[in-house]
Amino acid sequence: MTLLYSFLTLNILAFIITAYDKRLAIVQKKRISEETLLTFTAVGGTIGSALAMYIFRHKISKKYYLFKFYRIVFIQILIGIVVFYFYEKIFV
């Protein structure tokens, strides 16, 4: 259950940080770095980041950012597949 709460908290944080970066962009203030945004994505905030990106239309026209974002998503999917298919051989 702790893992679920951690996952939810991380995704909520990723959503808030991405939305806040959009707000900073609108008012032309110092922004949150792409490295920070992508780090939250990489450690498990993919869903929250993606929702904020599409709800607030933030970073969706930046091809290089999207390339990095989708590369992270692809790697997470591969890890999920490996863990799903090889769970017994790895963890048992």
Share of helix among residues? Answer: over 70%
Oligomer: single chain
The main β sheet shows up as:
none
Distance between the termini: 21 Å
Shape: elongated
Radius of gyration: 15 Å
Mean pLDDT: 93
Instruction: Please tally the β strands and state the result.
Output: 0
β-strand percent reads: under 5%
Instruction: Give the H and E element order.
Output: HHH
Give the structural class.
Answer: mainly alpha
- Weakly predicted, low-confidence segments: none
Helical stretch tally: 3
Pfam families: DUF1294
Organism: Flavobacterium fructosi
Transmembrane segments: 38-57, 69-87
InterPro entries: DUF1294
Would you kindly provide a written description of the structure presented here, covering whatever features stand out?
With 92 residues, the protein is an all-alpha fold. The protein is built from 3 helices and no strands. Helix 1 crosses helix 2 and helix 2 crosses helix 3. The longest helix is centred in the last third of the chain and has 29 residues. It is elongated.
Compact overview of the structure:
InterPro entries: DUF1294. With about 90 residues, this protein is mostly helical.
